Amino acid sequence: DTTVEMGTWHPGPGIVIAANTTNPEVWDAPARKKLFTIDRHDRPLAGTAISPDGKNLVVVLGAAPAADDEANEYSDEEPGTGTRFETWSISTGRMIEDLRVDREGVTAVGMSKDGSHVYVGWNDGTVDVLETATMGSLRTIGVHPAEITGFEVSPDGALLAATDADGATTIWRP
Q1: Long-range contacts of range 132-141, CB-CB < 8 Å, 24 or more positions apart?
Q2: With bands split at pLDDT 50, 70 and 90, how would you rate the model's confidence at 74?
Q3: Spatial CA neighbour of 42 closest among 84, 9, 75
Q4: Which of 79-83, 96-100, 110-114, 165-169 is predicted with the least confidence, judged by mean pLDDT?
């Protein structure tokens, strides 16, 4: 038995992402089959979103805990600071694109109706959008007065509602 701390469910193809203190696992729920595991490299899972067609998964990872020993300044490894965004193919279990930004504090993640964009909420109230295919740079849509707690996209995909920790909801045309 595994304790699940965070989960994302895609009702169409029955794909579920289950995350605990180790690494997120991607499951085909109807078949009761684990498809693959995502290595977080000691980074905490900040959020996940599955594309509406069930083909891709966006994983958002926070900063890794500080290392006990002194960092090797000549290392080729990516720094554990900042936030890491990854797009994964659910059918192949391979990462398609990734991006690391020098910012921390993701509090909410949402996906556009066509799966082309991921919406990111931050602890300072900022709402950003990121293209999932290219993982290009973040673009700010707007700012709330408090931490973002969730997103909802209108049925036609034209509007984005963001809710903050104070209970305020703002609607944008992303």
Answers
A1: 132/51, 132/56, 132/58, 132/87, 132/97, 133/87, 133/96, 133/97, 134/97, 135/85, 135/87, 135/97, 135/98, 135/99, 136/99, 137/99, 138/101, 141/172, 141/174
A2: very low
A3: 84
A4: 79-83
User: Which residue in this structure is represented by tokens 């469910």?
Assistant: 9
Q: How far is CA 150 from CA 27, 94, 160, 172, in A?
A: 24, 27, 10, 14
- pLDDT at residue 10 is higher than 80: no
Please state the pTM of the whole predicted model. Answer: 0.82
Strands 117-122 and 33-37: unpaired
Average pLDDT of every residue of the chain: 84
What pLDDT was estimated at residue 9?
Answer: 61
